[in-house]
Write a structure and sequence with these properties.
CATH class of the largest domain: Alpha Beta
CATH architecture of the largest domain: 2-Layer Sandwich
Radius of gyration: 24 Å
Strand order of the largest sheet: 3-2-1-4
Protein name: Transposase IS116/IS110/IS902 family protein
GO molecular function, one term: transposase activity
GO biological process, one term: DNA transposition
InterPro entries: Transp_IS110-like_N, Transpos_IS110, Transposase_20
Largest sheet: 4 strands, mixed
Helix content: 40-55%
């Protein structure tokens, strides 16, 4: 039975913090790489080097999906030819779960936008007649301003 290398990545907008463990849970190493293409390339090099040192035939990579900062790194790891010799199920699962999460939130956002548009109809306003301002932005402006009559010149045409 082969050995597995576990790689955990804490994603940041500028820097990714990496911790590598062996299959017994022992700490192998920790380091940081920039969250860009050179950082991804350095990460792949380190993963391959550590896997070769431990004679690992599987590499399991886990990362948090923070905003969109994880996307390019996930793609780089998935497409890295240097990692093709190792079991890459973890990268595929991480990517699939992240895409499912994005789709879920997109669906939720559409539902919320529909509710906002419905609720906005009950408020007398003309903001959404301005090109580029839809129901969500109109609701945002109304929520921020509050009762317009509290302003001394709320009926001023300019």
């Amino acid at each position: 039975m082969g050995k597995t290398l576990f790689v955990g990545i804490d994603i940041g907008s500028d820097t990714n913090v990496v911790r590598i463990l062996d299959d017994t849970g022992e700490d192998v190493c920790g380091f940081s790489v920039s969250n860009d293409l050179p950082g991804a390339e350095r990460l792949v090099e380190r993963i391959v080097a550590e896997a070769e040192l431990l004679d690992a035939d599987k590499v399991k990579i886990g990362m948090e999906a923070t905003n969109l900062y994880w996307w390019h790194l996930s793609q780089a790891l998935h497409e890295a030819p240097e990692l093709s010799a190792f079991d890459r199920d973890a990268v595929d699962v991480t990517l699939a779960m992240s895409l499912e999460t994005i789709r879920f939130f997109e669906t939720q956002q559409k539902k919320i936008d529909q509710v906002i548009a419905k609720e906005l109809k009950a408020i007398p306003q003309t903001l959404d007649t301005v090109p580029g301002i839809g129901p969500v932005y109109s609701a945002d402006i109304i929520a921020e301003i509050g009762d317009i009559s509290r302003f001394k010149n709320h009926k001023c045409p300019y």
